Amino acid sequence: MKPSRCRSLLPLLLMACVVGQTVPLKTARGGEDLQTTLPPIIYAVVGIKTNIYFDNIVIVKDTTAYQFKFTGDLGTTHTKRWTLTATVQQLGDHPLSLQVNAADGAPLAKANTIVRVIPAKSESQEPLKLLIIGDSLTHATTYCNEIARLLSQPNNPPWKMLGTHKPTSAADGVAHEGYGGWTWQRFASHFEPNPDGTYKKRSSPFVYQSSTGKPTLNVPKYFAEQCDGEIPDIIVIMLGINDCFSANSNDPASINSRVDSMFGHANILLKALRSAAPKARIGICLTTPGNSRQEAFQANYQDRYTRWGWKRIQHQLVQRQIAFVQSAQKQDEPLFIIATQLNLDTVDGYPVNNGVHPNAAGYKQIGATIYAAIKANLIDR
Questions:
Q1: Parallel, antiparallel, or unpaired for β 81-85 and 76-77?
Q2: Can you list the domains of the chain with their CATH numbers?
Q3: What is the mean pLDDT of residues 237-257?
Q4: Can you tell me the distance from the alpha carbon of 109 to that of 39, in angstroms, rounded to the nearest whole number?
Q5: What pLDDT, on the 0 to 100 scale, is given for residue 32?
Q6: Is the model more confident about 12 or about 302?
Q7: CA separation (Å) from 9 to 5, 101, 211, 336, 378?
C-alpha cells in the first residue's frame, strides 16, 4: 500500500505524515520521547472487538499524564484505549489519526493508520492450511485454541493447523511449532544429535541431518514428512521476546545490534519458508508488551530485568519489525504485519505474577488479532 498523507493538526505548520509513522510536534513532559508508534494497517473483523491500548503505543511510564485524541469515522475512545466492534456497514478501509497531547492540551505527537474492516463471512470456502511458529506464548497454546475457535465459526472455510507440537492443552485440531524459550536462530539452525523427547533438547523441526552428516535447514522435508506433504497457505510467526529480552535496555544502539542479529537469523528462516511454500502469506506478529506491573517482573526476574527496561526494548523492537516488514513488502515479499502488540490489555490481560506471559483473557486478545489478520489475507486467495 502506498503511503497516505495528511495535514498537520498544528496551525501554521504543514507536515507530511506517512501512515504508521510518528511525527513529533513538541518535547513531552520531563523530556520524555513518546515515540508514538502505530502499524500501517489494523485488521478488524465484523463483530469482534478490536482495541488500541494507549500504553502499548508510546514509550512513557504513565499514560494518564497525556491525552490521546483519535480522529476517524469509527470507534470510540475510553480511559485507556480506543475500541471498535465493527459492523457490516463499516466494511473497507478507514483512516484513523492519533494526536497525543500533554495534560494541558498542548500537542506533542501524532500518528496515522488504516483500520481495515473485514467481513465475518469468507467469500472463499477453499480449505485453509495454517502453520504457527513461536516461543512460549505459542507453546501455551491458548491463543492457538482461540484462533481455532474463531475459525470454526459459521461462514469460515474448513481449516487445518500444521505442526508437530500438540500439547495436552490443545483443542481438537490444534497444532503448532511453539516452544518455550526459542528464538529465530534456534528455529533456523539448531540441531540436537541426542534428543531426549523434550522441547528443551530437540532439534528445530525444520533442521535435519543431511547425507553428509551436516545439519541443514530443510523446510521441504518438514512439509513432506511432518505435514503429509501439505503446504501452508498462511504462516504466522510470533518470535522476538527471547531474541532481545536480555539486551541492554539503557542503550538503544545495543538494542538495535541485538535486533540486527535477530533479523539475520529471521531472513534465513523466512527465505527457506518462502522457497518451500512460495504461495504462502507470512504474518509477522509484533512483539507483545509486558505486564504493566513491576512486581510481576520482580516475581519472575528479581532485579535482573524490569518492566520499564523491557518496555523500552519491546517498543524499539516493534518499530524495527514494522520497518522490516515494510521493506520486504517493497520487494514484493509475501509478508504482512499482525499488530498483536496493540490489542493486549497489560493490566487485565496479565496475571499479577508474570512479566511477559498473559492470562487467558490476554491470550484470547492475541488470538483475535491474529484471526483478523488471517481473515484479511484469505480475501482474494
A1: antiparallel
A2: 23-118 (2.60.40.10), 128-378 (3.40.50.1110)
A3: 97
A4: 15
A5: 74
A6: 302
A7: 13, 11, 63, 30, 36
